[in-house]
Amino acid sequence: MIRFEHVTKRYRGTSKPALSDVDFEVQRGEFVFLVGASGSGKSSCLRLILREDNPSDGRVVVLGRDLRTLSTRKVPYFRRHIGSVFQDFRLLPNKTVFQNVAFTLQVIGSSRAFIQQAVPEVLALVGLDGKQKRLPHELSGGEQQRVAIARALVNRPQILLADEPTGNLDPATSVDIMQLLARINAGGTTVVMATHEAGFVDQMKRRVIELRGGVMVRDDRHGGYGDTSAIPSLTPQVEKGAAATAALTAVLELQRQIASAPVQPVPVLTEPATDAGTPASTPARPAASAATDVPAARQTPPQAPAQAPAPVPAEPAPLTRPIAIDAPEVDLGELGLGDIDLGKLGVADRLDERQDDEVGPTS
Ligand code: ADP
Ligand code: MG
């Protein structure tokens, strides 16, 4: 899914490489911590995965694409398969929670009807239902990071990159965010999280890749790697409400299906064939049909070897039950694309063509 082959990165005007001969492979479905002190090269690694930068030597392969050969024109399509969150959240300050998340979909040309369904679902998934109309400054830091995570996930990426996502949060809130990331990973999304905070890493008992001065000094697959017992409870919390429970269960189930499904040629970003003018109060689609909106993962053939099956929530809701979530009326026109630097938000660039989005075969 992500492969670094003897990657060295030298920044212009610096003598010592930021990364030296870094070599690792992340399989589909893994949760990997990238740890190391400040300046050890963690963010440089994540930028290379996103193709925001190129290696000086060596090769980076992501989702089956050798990023050296990926044309600039195709980079935005490639990035749609990767969600990113950052330490500083990078929310649009004068947009509501709903608008911040909707923005990602609007940028890639999703229909209003699809946005009205997908945004409440992902907000429920991250535990933010009921806060759709708040502005970022009306939220706690942890809630703001949840918005950023929702925004990263709303396009159902195969990979989630998190660069010090708990760096601005207090310890208790950081644990909440870690639990959320673990839950997302349990649903099949590959997660790579950079952090200099070793505390979480030990608790999570997941794979740890450690950098020191740009050199990989540890790739610890042992000491609990693959042991999912350390993952915090996967059962949706009752206080999040029935809608959130149903949405989370549906998404987890869906992601499991995708993770184990044979490859099927499904067009990317299939959307419900509903009129854009559908009233916002239209009930969300049944959970089972949500699969048609998440085709991206299916384009990538299953990786060998398959990961252990994700833990199942204790009491999954029947998949045939509709997810009843009220979508607020929102004027998407207010989302103005203006002068916003999409790259800084972790949002793919606006594009006119939709079909040119092939990724794979994965290696
Ligand atoms: P980390 O995320 O682990 O703190 P970074 O990847 O940001 O580490 O940085 C690794 C090294 O590369 C540091 O020495 C940093 O100063 C240097 N570096 C990062 N980005 C640039 C850049 N754009 N130009 C020059 N040096 C850089
Ligand atoms: Mg960094």
Which features would summarize this protein structure in a list?
363 residues; alpha/beta; Rossmann fold; six-stranded mixed beta sheet; four-stranded antiparallel beta sheet; 16% strand; binds adenosine-5'-diphosphate; binds magnesium ion; cell cycle; nucleotide-binding; P-loop_NTPase; cell division; transmembrane transporter activity
Textual characterization of the structure:
By secondary structure, the chain is α/β, with parallel strands linked by helices. The chain has 3 domains: 2-232, 3-Layer(aba) Sandwich (Rossmann fold), CATH 3.40.50.300; 233-261; 265-363, no CATH class. Helix content is 27%, strand content 16%. It has 9 helices and 10 strands. The strands form 2 sheets. The chain has a 6-stranded mixed sheet with strand order 6-7-8-3-9-10, with helices on both faces. α4 (112-125) packs across α5. The longest helix has 19 residues, at 242-260. The protein is globular. Mean pLDDT is 74; it is low at 223-252, 261-339 and 349-363. The structure holds adenosine-5'-diphosphate and magnesium ion. One of its GO terms (biological process) is cell division. Its main location: membrane. It is a peripheral membrane protein.
